[in-house]
Amino acid sequence: METQQKLIYFDNASTSWPKPENVYTFMTDFYRSTGVSPGRSGYELGIEAATLLDKLRLRLTKFFGGDEDASERLCFGYNATDALNLIIPGLLKAGDHVITTEVEHNSVIRPVNTLARDGGVEATFVPFDGAGFVDPDDIARAIRPNTRLVIVNHGSNVIGTIQPVAAIGRICRAHGIPFALDVSQTAGVVPIDMKAMNVDVLAFTGHKSLMGATGIGGLCVRKHLEIRQVRAGGTGVNSEYPYQLAEYPWRLEYGTINMLGVAALWAGQEWLATQGIETIHAREMALARRFVDGVREIPGVQLYCCDNLENHLSTISLNVGELDAGDAGLRLDVKHDIATRTGLQCAPLVHKRIGTAARRGTVRFSIGAFNTDAEIDTAIAAVSEVASWAASR
Hints:
The protein is of the alpha/beta class. It folds into two domains: about 10-20 and about 275-390, Aspartate Aminotransferase, domain 1; about 20-275, Aspartate Aminotransferase, domain 2 (3-Layer(aba) Sandwich), CATH 3.40.640.10. Helices cover about 40% and strands about 15% of the residues. The chain contains twelve helices and 13 strands. It has helices spanning about 20-35, 45-65, 80-90, 105-120, 135-140, 165-175, 195, 260-275, 275-295, 325-335, 350-355, 375-390; strands spanning about 10, 75, 95-100, 120-125, 145-155, 180, 200-205, 215-220, 300-305, 315-320, 340, 340-345, 360-365. The longest helix is centred in the first third of the chain and has 20 residues, at about 45-65. The protein is globular and about 70 Å long.
């Protein structure tokens, strides 16, 4: 019987996999022993669950450089998309202007466009340059008297570039404009300091480099910023009050918390603390450079925005010859057991800017903490085979 080849996974920008072993263990043990709603009754297990939840709020607030004396403003939801759908309509109203960029994910593009179409909001999408970076001066030039929000994707999920958010944050602070940051791709990879970067609110998700489970994420709000409520529901607190509570975290936190996700995020924080995010990132980037150096020499391979891998994530997009990106990714999967992400990766403006929209996107290799040199070498050989196959068609 033929032995099935082990899958080589390069889709970590979507969901990191596998997780550290301690994440699996802690999730299982916690949910077996303490898998109840946190703090909604006075029994011991509920108090234990609430204790872990409150400890995680403080730990993540510190991790993001937020206001540690206001850790209740770390509010949990499903993921970054969920958080962004609280932030964007919670800070904008008819007549307001928002500045964002062409490097954004649809989790920003679609809420902004919806408000522009239906809510009387004006929007400016600032382009990025040929290397994949937004010029902070372009943000400054886009500011109008009615600009009420700047929102930027910290790290691109397509081309891997890390934007100069500290410089953008200084511009926003000088003009008194709230600055929101989407850290879906960077949380757990590069240091984030909301105070140093002048970030007023950020959106995060747990299932990528924070090493948590799917279905958990949220937002961290600085204590000088207020976000309007756009939802209402159960909180388990002051149930007789007929409206959503104004106090944090309930102001922006709705229904029963995903405690299995909370447990995973806690364990992910433990693992990141032992490894060091700078060490993890350095290792991932060494693998990314090995991959780029290898595939760059293959005839027919086109790489995007990775001539210089400084200020970059280990996310690399490419195309092979004249192949449709989906066809190239399918051959990598079927012939080589290599999992990539093909298509527009929920970031259509990036593909329009780099000229890949017409060929239905790119093949994205997103390298993670558990990939190896051997897997990189196998991937280089596989891309070479796909390129030879494409040239012979």
